[in-house]
Specification:
With 419 residues, the chain is an alpha+beta fold. The chain is 27% helix and 28% strand. The protein is built from 10 helices and 20 strands. The strands form 3 sheets. Strands 5, 6, 7, 13, 14, 15, 16, 17 and 18 form a 9-stranded mixed β-sheet that branches. Strands 1, 2, 9, 10, 11, 12, 19 and 20 form an 8-stranded mixed β-sheet that branches. A 3-stranded antiparallel β-sheet has the order 3-8-4. Bound molecules: flavin-adenine dinucleotide. Flavin-adenine dinucleotide binds next to helix 2, strand 3, strand 13 and strand 18.
């Protein structure tokens, strides 16, 4: 771990300066979606065009294969796991260092997508971590940073107050900043992948629900509420709905809550002045995390600083999510944030729900389905998958087209639950 050479341009926004508004990108994609062919035979069908499915459609179409992406709702939407403007991206993975090589590639792929379309998707804000020095959030981050030489800097209380006066952090907590971390924009990323997939002649159907699939004599049949299609290879990237299309009955879907607040002094919380942050505290389960204030003109509604509690929410039926947030649920999160960011919440501007799909060990499942080399599944992203979407699409395309991936994904095999 490097020490102290951190501050300087930590909060500069990296990459490109062009930020195409979500509304403009959306209408652009909608126009293209309305001119589509009516073919029923494809090389590959992708069930679910969300985070992982949109990136997969792009990667497969780019290589010249005919691909049909089937999405039950609009692109994007707020019924699954990708709604809500922003997702944290970081490399010093506290969950396990095994993820770091995948993250290195994910960063490269986000950058090349940005360059291809001249639109910014990754925003480098730095990520401030704080918590008791023995907490896995701190020790895990330090471990991955050390193993892969990722720029994570430790700093003391005085430096913290100088550089990040928005936070009130206990003296005995560790403070770290991961310089190249920040956030990616899920709706913009999914729309961009969809747009680029269409440019490479993918067919994408929205508001078309897949009902079932089967395989006979080497041909895969996919039935939707509108049509029956045939393909050689199938991809299952249906997020919270993946258990409907697979025998993975050990996936748990939970309802998670995201908050947006108007801060007391908005200038202190602006993009460029305020980093992404995450903390652990002995009095709470899981961790809390949040983002700078984002303008609606570039980032879409709702306005404010967004924050959330990363812990297992209540189990839910993916088709009947309770969208009402109780006063108790609100109070717990608001109190936790106010303790450490006293000026962060003047009033709450919006609260939304979103779905996590947990695998039993909270690691992803990225593999051939049921030893069947014609079907690939990406599932169980367990509330930490979005930052990887750019590399997951590439890996799924490799598995579909070449039958193997050059990326280190053995730890994500589905048979790890068998014994
Ligand atoms: C509140 C919250 C905060 C998060 N924060 C972060 C973060 O900071 N960083 C991070 O990296 N990750 C984060 N995540 C996790 C990340 O967003 C998910 O891991 C990721 O979006 C999962 O992608 P997916 O493709 O599996 O699911 P989705 O993006 O939901 O895509 C699945 C798609 O399949 C479609 N589908 C399902 N069934 C059918 C059907 N029958 N027919 C057609 N289409 C179908 C769905 O409609 C959906 O569009 C967060 C998630 C939530 C909920």
């Amino acid at each position: 771990m490097k020490r102290r050479d951190f501050i300087g341009n930590t909060l500069a926004i990296g990459g490109l300066t062009s930020v195409i508004p979500i509304s403009q990108l959306y209408s652009n994609v909608q126009k293209k979606l309305s001119h589509q062919n009516k073919k029923t035979n494809y090389d590959v069908i992708v069930i679910g065009v969300g985070s992982m499915g949109s990136s997969t459609c792009y990667q497969i179409a780019k290589q010249g294969y005919s691909v049909l992406g089937l999405e039950q709702f609009d692109i994007p939407h707020e019924m699954g796991s990708h709604g809500g403007q922003s997702r944290i991206i970081r490399k010093a993975y506290f969950e396990h260092p095994n993820y770091v090589p995948l993250l290195e590639r994910a960063y490269e792929n986000w950058k090349s997508l940005e360059q291809e379309v001249s639109n910014q998707i990754y925003f480098k804000t730095g990520l401030l971590y704080f918590g008791p020095s023995k907490h896995p959030l701190i020790t895990g981050t330090q471990k991955s940073a050390k193993k892969y030489d990722i720029q994570v800097n430790e700093f003391n209380r005085k430096e913290q107050i100088d550089k990040f006066p928005q936070f009130k952090i206990p003296n005995d907590y560790s403070n770290l900043i991961e310089v190249d971390a920040g956030f990616v924009t899920p709706e913009r990323a999914i729309l961009t992948y969809t747009k680029q997939a269409l440019k490479h002649k993918a067919t994408i159907h929205i508001n078309e629900k897949t009902l079932q699939w089967s395989k006979k004599d080497g041909v895969i049949k996919v039935k939707t509420n509108k049509q029956t299609y045939y393909c050689k290879k199938l991809v299952l990237t249906a997020g919270a709905w993946n258990s409907k299309f697979s025998k993975l009955k050990n996936l748990e879907v939970t309802r998670q809550v995201m908050f947006w607040a108007k801060p007391r002094n908005i200038n202190m919380f602006k993009l460029n002045k305020f980093p992404c942050w995450t903390f652990a505290d002995p009095t709470i389960n899981g961790i809390y995390y949040g983002f700078p204030n984002l303008s609606n003109s570039s980032f879409g509604e709702p306005p404010g600083i967004k924050f959330a509690h990363h812990t297992k929410g209540t189990l839910t039926d993916y088709d009947a999510v309770n969208k009402n947030i109780s006063i108790d649920e609100q109070r717990t999160v608001i109190e936790a944030i106010r303790k450490f960011i006293p000026e962060g919440i003047d009033s709450i501007s919006s609260i939304k729900t979103c779905l996590y799909t947990y695998s039993p060990d909270e690691d992803f499942i990225l593999d051939f389905y049921n030893e069947n080399k014609d079907v690939v599944i990406g599932a169980g992203f367990s509330g930490h998958g979005f930052k990887f979407a750019s590399v997951i699409g590439e890996i799924i395309a490799e598995l579909v087209i070449k039958g193997k991936s050059i990326h280190p994904i053995n730890f994500l095999k589905s048979n790890r639950f068998n014994g």
